[in-house]
Amino acid sequence: IVEVALGLLDEEGIDAVTMRAVAERLNVTTPTVYWHVVSKESMLDRVFDRLCGEVELPAGTQSWDNRLREVAQGMRAVFAAHNDAARLAIGRFPMGPKGLAVTEVVLAALRESGVTDDEVAFSAFGFFSYIVVFCHQEKIAPLAGGGSDRTEALAQIRSYLKQLPAAQFPQLNYYAQSLTSGGLDRRFAFGLDQFIGGLKSVSSKG
């Protein structure tokens, strides 16, 4: 059931993942699927846990900050490989064994950073939220005019920003180039560096 649901997610997106659609692909009745998973949300939870199992976990011998970077890059790779996977993850707490294993690694790394217990919990939320939201946006935008060429879309946005009246929008006009260039890899790494740098700053003050 989980593998079929994941196949639907990859091919058609999360909206196509229904109990009926899974049943049809398995050539069984919908009540048969309900017998094994009590609801659509329960099924999606299991799909999410299946995806978490694809995240490569870093060795515990690495420094805490490098472990966080590896988990982040691993999650991004999984989200990139599966259509709508980041959207599936939004607001979903990992309750399955594979998801819990990822969270355990992150919590251990954050604890080693030297921040307080509450700050570990808050930082974990921020860490996962950053990755999920970045990866979701990475999948869907910016695609001006409904096209599929990201470079062309960014060029259109850049041109628009540069044409704005500088007296009214001086910052947008000035940063038009920077806002529409730089590459997603660099942007993702920059955000991680700022997050980790912030943790180091907080822990040093404690």
Question: What do you see in this structure?
Answer:
The chain is mainly α and 206 residues long. It contains 12 helices and no strands. The chain has helices spanning 2-12, 19-26, 30-36, 40-52, 64-81, 85-89, 97-112, 117-140, 150-163, 170-174, 176-179, 184-205. α2 (19-26) crosses α3 (30-36) and α8 packs antiparallel against α12. The longest helix has 24 residues, at 117-140. The chain starts with a helix and ends with a helix.
Characteristic terms for this protein:
206 residues; mainly alpha; single chain
Summarize the structure.
With 206 residues, this protein is mainly α. It has helices spanning 2-12, 19-26, 30-36, 40-52, 64-81, 85-89, 97-112, 117-140, 150-163, 170-174, 176-179, 184-205.
List the helices and strands and how they pair.
Elements (H helix, E strand, L loop, with lengths): L1 H11 L6 H8 L3 H7 L3 H13 L11 H18 L3 H5 L7 H16 L4 H24 L9 H14 L6 H5 L1 H4 L4 H22 L1
Helix pairs in contact: 1-4, 2-3, 4-7, 5-7, 5-8, 7-8, 8-12
Number of strands: 0
**Main β-sheet, in a few words?**
none
How would the global form be characterised? flat
Could you estimate the helical fraction of the residues in percent?
over 70%
Low-confidence stretches: none
- Write the H/E string, N to C: HHHHHHHHHHHH
